[in-house]
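User: Can you help me understand a structure? I only have the sequence.
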Amino acid sequence: MSKHLVIVESPAKGKTIEKYLGPDYQVMASYGHVRDLVPKEGAVDPENGFRMKYDVIERSEKQIEAIAKALKKSDDLILATDPDREGEAISWHLYEVLRDRGLLDDRGVHRVVFHEITKKAIQQAIEEPRDLAKPLIDAQQARRALDYLVGFNLSPLLWRKIKRGLSAGRVQSPALRMICERENEIEAFVPREYWTLDAKVERQSQPFTARLTHLDGNKLDQFDLNSAELAHDAQKRLTDAANGELRVAKVEKKQRRRNPAAPFTTSTLQQEASRKLGFTASRTMRTAQQLYEGIDLGSGAIGLITYMRTDSVALAGEAIGEIRGLIEERYGANNVPDSPRQYKTKSKNAQEAHEAIRPTSVRRLPNEVRERLSSDQARLYDLIWKRTVACQMIHATFDTVAADLVPGDSRHQFRATGSTLVDPGFIAVYQEGRDDAQDDDEDKRLPEMAEGDTVQLEEVTADQHFTEPPPRYTEASLVKTLEEYGIGRPSTYASIISTLQSREYVEMDGKRFIPTDTGRIVNSFLTQHFDRYVDYDFTAKLEDELDAISRGEKDWVPVLEDFWGDFRDRVKEKEENVTRAEAVQSRELGTDPQSGRPVSVRLGRFGPIVQIGTKDDEEKPRFAGLLPGQKMDKITLDEALELFKLPRDLGETPEGEPVMVNIGRFGPYVKYGSKYASLGPDDDVWTIELPRALEIVAEKKQKDAERFIKSFDEEGIQVLNGRYGPYVTDGNKNAKIPKETDPKSLTLEQCQELIAAAPERKGRGRKGASKSTAKSSGKTASKSSTAKKTTTKKAATTKKAASKTGTKKTAARKTTSKKAPAKKATTAKSGGAKSDSGDNAGDSRLSAQPSGDRGSE
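Assistant: Let's start by predicting it. Here is the structure, written out as tokens:
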């Protein structure tokens, strides 16, 4: 039997690590978190020191049983989860579960960390075990408790005041505020006109351009020439004064250096992958996780990059030495600086991984490993490799030239600038991207000029411009801004962005975020009634306090107490005093000329709607949904009334079915009888006529016919073609048909057997919670002071934490009560992403956050 049981988070890296450690070690995966807060109110108890009640996650039960079985045959337990707060918490939760089962009484427990999956790093980690780190566990518990308290209190308020399914969160809401405020800036922006005058000149057959900087001896500001009249007057005066040539009044030559960017942190990797590769933050983190956990290069899997959740820009001395050696070999000794470049981390609390993201060995060249990688893996590895190598190369050197050109003896002045790359240095390998295009003089070369020389003037041009509003946020610029404000942590940004999109708070215009009407109403409600909690400085300060907990500088309970009192009182006060009409921001547009009733626009259950009449009228109100592109704050009375001209009756099908067109929750459609078909992208619901509608109906009927294979009507069983192949269904369960079986040949008995053997269809609620509740181990954890001595044998025999607080009477059906949404809870078996503000959101270590629909971050 194995002497040592090692627990990691994912099986992908488990096999590699087991190979490095040898036969005395058995490596098993926890598959992320093994416990989470119980999925109901009361999981965090502020009245009792914020005691937290935990359940074993249903999908983890079998794996815990397997780990427990293996532990019985082992001498000790080695916890080797990821080297951050979340990884520390996973180890602690597993320790608590195994301890409560009495499996650690006579076994040693050790915590080891490593930042790359290489043989040397793994073996060194095993030789340097430590205890579980109480401050890291406390910090993670504090984050989880905060997110739970915000989610389970603020989100239900949004449901009651605005509509169901909404969420608010500690970090998610300030991010939404940023996007909405930027949109407000854009809408309020008033363009200003200005003109620029350029001289098109030539010397020694080389044309170049010079910009007017002084007029009549006065330096021009941007808006000094703000009309065509002023611009054309200046253009004529300059042309007359020049008389076909400009005199060189002054030439300045300088040398400029540009230094390479620091190696990647989580945040800068997400930003650069967005700019250069078009990756979303979640796609970047998913691919980086694969590169970290290991790729088989022909002789077994090996980690290609270091740990990808880090705020640090430091590099290990050994890595720097290898990089400098590679630079000398590939790019020449002249590209190696005299001393290694050292970068300082700006973040006060660089995540617990102590290095920047880098290749585990720069000797693994991108072109040599590319054939073993997927397209995404190869592109991201190439980006990381180049940035890492470039960061240890010499600066790039530019020769810059600026020449002042004067027309005749006047006091007017033009300036021409140019820049020439003399020594590329690090640019030969890598150049950092930019979020938005900028003017750049680096590729402009000027002819040789000296004071007193003349240059030929071809013409003076006058160009009209208008100022532009600030650009909408991209993923890269949003991540950058969040980090600059100190809101959230880089490892959480992917999940924050995903939540904003899944809640339909934002939509994408190309790669830029636009807030939806729902997003703007939620933001308006929060900024008006919970201004403190979406304030950037408050959120950043709270983040700093959580970091201080992780460093052992603060106790976590007082931090939560300071937050909870005012927050609880604010929620109660707004629940009592804010009406739903105020929250949804109903806006009256005018009066319906036909009925004389008021016409208003507001947010309805399925999105923005216009309404004729009120609920107090004798006649029921009429409703119509807004069209794509229409906005609640922009729609006019005439536009609203047009919406009530739907549905349009077009006639009948040849079979006598009535045909009509309308707009529904999912867009324009044609209805024939009791069935529906979506209109095409080029079809207009206002102008489509019966012949085109019948074409759409015929296409839909053909598609439905191709989907149908056979049916047993009395038993309600059908054999159908689906997206993933033929299947059998009785309306409640779907059963795959074996590949070797002809679907058309299936008998009723065979269909019934397939359905009986098929798994139950996953519902929208967290139905499986009853099992995990009944089987949970260590449901209640007291303050994580239990972690202080958890890794010694002695600790295993100490008094168990109050684990009986959560009992078997916690019924699963209660998890889907009015205050506990079920929409996202089906991730319990799918290994979904962590909550938004967990330290490592988006790494799929925590499935089924119970407050997922409550806006947990």
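Now, to help you interpret it: The chain is about 35% helix and 20% strand. The radius of gyration is 33 Å. Let me know which part you'd like to focus on.
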